[in-house]
UniProtKB/TrEMBL annotation:
One of its GO terms (cellular component) is mitochondrion. The keyword Membrane applies. It comes from the Eukaryota. The chain crosses the membrane at residues 368-387, 415-436. Residues 1-61 form the J domain. This is DnaJ-like protein subfamily C member 11.
Amino acid sequence: MHSCEKANDEEISNAYRRLSRMYHPDKHTDPQRKKEAEILFSKTKKAYEDPHLRAIYDNLGTAGLETQGWEIVQRTKTPQEIRAEYEQLARDREERRIQHRTNPKSSITMNINATELFNSYDDESPYYDLRDLVGLPHIEISGMSINQSIEAPLTTRDTAIFSGNLSSQNGTGHGGVNCCVRRVLSEKGWGEIEFGAGNGVNLSLKGFRNFSRGFFGNGSIIGHFTPTGVRLGTVATLANQLDKHTVGYLTWKTGMQSGMSTMIIRDTSKSHIVCSLYFGIPHTYCALSFTRKLPERETKFKITGKAGTFGAILEYGAERKVSRHSSLGATMSIGVPTGVILKIRLHRATQTYATSILLCEELLPAPVIYGTVIPIVGWLALQKLIIQPYLKQQKQKELQKQREANRSSIHSDSLFLHFVAYGYVTETLIVIYIPVFHIELKKCCF
């Protein structure tokens, strides 16, 4: 008899009955052994009843069953495909473990001045250059900022956080580094001390406390040491869970920026609403933001209004998930005295890339229309020329793999018919058993 890598149904059933008797919880009296037997008994039962799990177990053993994140594994997948998927999941799991441990975060923000796109040309100006001769507008990067932070767990209760930032605005730049240590004091709170250096020396103490269910608060004392003196400031916030979806916040600030604000946030599966009111120096304002969520389309639409002693701003935009870990959004900001600004934001995992384009310093209809239409046309072109072809290509690859697997299965069935016919001619009986990968030949005489 020729033995193969895979067992037939009878052998699988016998092995399942044997393992079930061995690992049945009632067979063990020791509590620790009984607990381990329950886990093994459950795994054995799942692997026997589910053909998808059986396909994983046949090729990878218990390590495959313990791996999370499997796509639906069909029995028509080859062992090489199952192992390749397992190795990919292992790499993803290790990457997630490292990211979860260090929690790296980064953001890059760029400011672009494109006001000349909508400014009329001054014929009386005595200055001109090559751009004036060919009619090219002058667009410049007026500012950029980069922020990066990572976490380093020291103990089960202590975590160190390192962060740094660099920024430049109109040719003037500055930066800083910060190091903070956070300690979990109890299940209800934590404390944090932070030290930073950049434009002077910063030292701050922060704390969080959960007073009761749905009622919590945090506070901080901040000191900024410069050659001209020391500036102190405090921030304190109290929050209360008003209902299942609503939280209210009350914040006090003193020192560097004095003021008091109240905020109500309501978040549901379909919408996100933020209402805030701020009284302080140098400005007082109120703001209202509404976000409409479309989970089935992985899209969000947002509109925000803000008005106060500084002026007024109206913002509207949309955000769309473009891949498993990435989302792309665009927002139009129309305000006095800020002007017309187009904001584009790409968020991928823990990285954020943002661009703010100043289209016009005045409220004119042309920049508003162009700033609204161009992102929509750009998104449609991106989806039509890049995203959809890529997804279609990936789908075709999956279909091709499925066809090859089905062709292999059909070929195995044709082998069965061929060998049976050959058996009658040569007075030899050949029995072929095909779960998917397994072909077992038995030869005996009549």
